[in-house]
Each structure stands twice: as C-alpha cells, then as structure tokens.
Amino acid sequence: MSVFTPLPESTLATWLRGYAVGRLVELKGIAAGVQNSNFFVTTTLGRYVLTLFEAIPRAELPYYLHLMAHLARHGLPVPAPIADRDNEYLGTLEGKPAVLVMRLPGQSVMAPGEQHCARVGAMLAGLHLAGQSYGRRQENPRGPAWRAATATEVRGFLPAEEQALLDTELAFQAQVDSAALPAGAIHADLFRDNVLWDGDHIGGVIDFYFAGHDSLLFDVAVTVNDWCATADGKLDAARCAALLTAYQAERPFTAAERLAWPAMLRAAALRFWLSRAADHHLPREGEMVLVKNPDEYRDILRHRIAAHPALPEV
Amino acid sequence: MSVFTPLPESTLATWLRGYAVGRLVELKGIAAGVQNSNFFVTTTLGRYVLTLFEAIPRAELPYYLHLMAHLARHGLPVPAPIADRDNEYLGTLEGKPAVLVMRLPGQSVMAPGEQHCARVGAMLAGLHLAGQSYGRRQENPRGPAWRAATATEVRGFLPAEEQALLDTELAFQAQVDSAALPAGAIHADLFRDNVLWDGDHIGGVIDFYFAGHDSLLFDVAVTVNDWCATADGKLDAARCAALLTAYQAERPFTAAERLAWPAMLRAAALRFWLSRAADHHLPREGEMVLVKNPDEYRDILRHRIAAHPALPEV
Question: Residue B83 is nearest to which of A22, A74, A83, comparing CB atoms?
Fold first, then answer.
C-alpha cells in the first residue's frame, strides 16, 4: 500500500525532538509496503525511515525491532531501529506505534543472476547464524495455525481443482515433522523487493515484519522460491545451485534438512499462495493493498510437487 | 602510527569464523591512528574496520565500545562495534584486544568552511544529547590528574618562558570550578581528522578512544580550538559563530557555561599542548607515533589567554 496515515511535517518535527537525530530537513511518503505507512526522513544529522504500524499489534513489535537491532549489531546490513532519548525504540505518533530506523543504501534487483543469488544465499546464512544468539522468541506469524485458519477462509472461493490441490497439500504438510530441523529467528519474506543492492553488494535487507521463530530451512525455501524461479514458476538450476552452495558454505545443511527440502519448498509455496488468495478474495476494508496474483504461487506449488529438487552436495 | 601488529590474512580469516559477517575478501592496513593498529576488512557480507589495541588497558575498552554502540543506536554515524556469535564486542587477536566495527563512508576535510562547522556543531550536540542516557561512566583519561602528572614530566624540557606559561595556566585552571557545568560522555578528540564527510553530510565520527565523562563544554572547546582556528592559532569569528550557534540550537548553553567558556578554551588548549609536548620530549620506545608539533597548541593557548571570547547569544 501507499502511505495510509497522513503526517504533517510540523507534527514529525516536534516528535523528533524526543530523539538525538537533529532537525527535520525533509519528509517523503514511500509508496510501498503492504501493512505499514513508511516515510523517508532526512534530518540535519542523518537519513532514516519512519514506519507507522497500521495492523501489527503493538505487543508483537518489540520482537521485530530487537531482532533488527540484534542483526545490525552483528554487522549485517539490516535497518537498525533508533532509540529515543529515553532509550526506547518503539514510540507513538498520530496514535499509532511508530519506529525510526536507519535508511540503508541501494535498490532492488528484480531479474537477479547467479552472482546475486550467491550473495543472497551467503547473507541469509549470516542472518541465520547471527540470529542463533537472539534471546527473544515469537512464533512465525504465518506458521501452521495461520495456514489452517486461512485455508478454511479461502477454500470456498477456489475452483474445484484448486480445492483439491489445497486439500492434498494440507494433508501432506500435516505429516511433515520439522522437529529435527535447525530452527531460529527467520526473515520469512526475503523476496527480491526486500533486498537493496548497492552496486554488487547488498546494502540492505529490509522488512522484518513477517519474521518469527521457525525452521531455518523454511526461510531458505521462501528465498529460493522467489530468487530462483523462472517466469513460469519452475526452479532455475544454476541460480538454485549458486544460492544454496553459498548458503551451505556458511551453514552446512543437516541430513534432516536434505530429506525435508522438497517438502519445505512446497510449504513455502503454500504459505504465499494462501496469503495472496486471502488478500484477493478477502480484501480488508479501507486498505489499498497491492494485491499480488495468487496464481503465481499456485503454479509454483504445482511445480514443486512435480519436481523433487535436492540440496547440492558440499 | 601505521600498523604495528602484522596480521596474516589466514589468521584473520579464521578469527572471522567467530562472527556472522561472511568470508574474508580483503585485508588492508591503515596508515593512521596514534595508539592502535587499524585495518580495513572487506567480507562477502560487508565492510568493516578492525582495531587491535596496542596501548589501552583491556579493562578500559568496554566503556568505549558500549559508548559507540549506544550512540549508533541513537541514529548517529558512529562506528558501531560488531558482536561475535557469542554476542561479545571485545575479542582477542594475535594476543591483543581486538574489535571489529562498521566502516563508515567519507573523507576528512582539513580546511572546513562555516557550513562544515555548523554541521559539526549540530553533530556534537547530538552526541552529547544521546550520551546523556549512556549508563557507563569512566573519567576523561586526559583530565586534571593526567594534566598534573604530564606537566611534571615535561616541564623540565621546556624553555623558561614556556615553563612560566605552563605554571600560570596550571594555577589558573586549578581555580576553575566545573562542578556547575553539564557533564556526560564526551568524545574529547573531535578534530578534523576524526570526522568523515560523505559529500556535504557527516558520514562518520570516529576514534572514540579518548572519550570519557567530563564537562560537555570541554568537548565543545576541544572542537572549536581545532575547527575554528586560523593558521596562526587565533579563532575565526565566523566559523566559531557557525559551530556554536548550531550546537546551541540543539542544546542551549547554561549561564555557568557562558561564564566558563574562556577558561574552557584554555583548558582544551593546555590538554593538547601537554600531550604533544609529552609525545615530543618523551617518545615511547618502539612506537612510530606521528609526533605533532606542540608549538601549535602552545600558541593556541597564548591566543586564548589573550582573547576573552564569548558564546553567541541565542
């Protein structure tokens, strides 16, 4: 969505007096994001992004903000939240929960090559390794419980063959046991539009507001499904190899992960098919969500069921 | 000094496995700094600076590292220390205390104009405001006790007229009561070579290893003595006005600070005259310190005694 909450400059200028970031120079709405209002904020001392949370409950926000702070502290290009003069990350602006974060350099690359995929694989492994020492825990908000509830909501809107696909996949996923898989804090939405490229390097990994505790391999699968897909939703072997090889150079996959890989690709595809179907069939009133085509992830799911891709050998 | 401790790439590559910053790509010594060995470190995931501490006692380092982390957390362009996988900032490399910090963009500007001075004034105020909520405390390592001890050491090397200047100034400073001045964490060495300019903006404020708890006004005086001096050591009125006006827009000076300003400029000049005289007359064995000319700060001290500059009105 674009900016939801209009924000007068004078209101922001006053609010910023609670921080040590200098005076407001420029305020600009950002026409992106799917559940928050975002603004570029330039002050006399730096460049920041301001987010007003429109939908996420306030109690869930500290997990995300402290995760971002934790990963930035470990040297990764993640938007570090800015503490106010009382040392708090989470504030209130125009009656909404609000946070100021560092603005990171770069632009998204929507047609990535093997080099991009290799760097994303290494970065994802870095996020997972750094996340292992993160002390807070909040379940993946798009995990099994959400999946079951959302499937129930959207099923009636689907044509018969898609209902059959959904039923089969839900039954399959219910049998997957992920207890043996390494888990931790995952980004869970590392799509191409959430990575900013500063030349050949990753200048920023953004939008942690779907993060949560889950299998690390699920995060890898979400990432591969987006970065390594062909236009029709199949996997591009060269990009897959580049991403996965770079990842496992930092964190080798376990035997359990090798077994679970095909199922995890399907679980990741199902998650985005469901959320897009819900956004499509059950739009929330008053929101200008950019509704993405659910068919893309239905097709990706079908391709992942048909194929049985393996993780590359070390 | 240049790099003191030679560091083989293979040693660093192994050491970096304790972090989540990816693989070593490039290691380059930095020919600058006066008491540490510094290196540019590029990895697959980012750009960092590595510092090996050659002289500062290990027990004093957490104050500096947590101060840098605190200020970075408040949105200021300070080199944030990187935590290793055990969440620790301070490590050991080649037997020395070692820290990895974020590399910040920009270059020093050695002939600053009024615009530069205004930005530095605002930044210094930002550092002071953010520093107010810093929980640790360590006295300024170049405070009154150091001043007295160093004066005793160097006095005998000075010609008679400089001994007289030193005696008079020490007696004057002994009468200054700074108890009424606002205090907090100060940088204490915000010279032109410790500010990196990224275009017109400050991309980095570096080298916090002289920081400590002291009067905020002392920090302002150190900064003005360097940024606003003419070639012969006098104060440039326009640059002073720019720096101090920008500073007090963020943190207005108190009445006690207005009274103390001339004495504080002298205290700041004395501090650098003494340290340079000590480096000149008492070089530490085996160190390749770039010895700066002590006469520059002797002359600055004389000019500050002769003049009685006032802080600008609000």
Answer: A74
